[in-house]
Amino acid sequence: MDVMVERCAGLDVHRDNVVATARVPGQGRRRFEQETRTFKATLGGLAQLGAWLAELGVTLVGMEATGVYWKTVFQALEERFECWLLNAHHLRNVPGRKTDVKDSEWICQLVQHGLVRPSFVPPPEIRRLRDLTRLRTAQSNERTRTIQRLEKLLQDAGIKLSSVASTSYSKSARAMLEALLSGVSDPDQLAELSKGKMRAKIPQLRDALQSRFQVEHHGVMVAQLLAHIDTLDVVLQNLTARIELVLAPHAHIVELLSTIPGVQAQAAQVLIAECGLDMTVFLPHRPRPGPIPRPRPGLAAQALLSRTPRPPPTTPTRSPRLRRHPRTNRTHRTSRLT
Question: How many CB atoms within 10 Å of residue 208?
Answer without folding.
Answer: 21
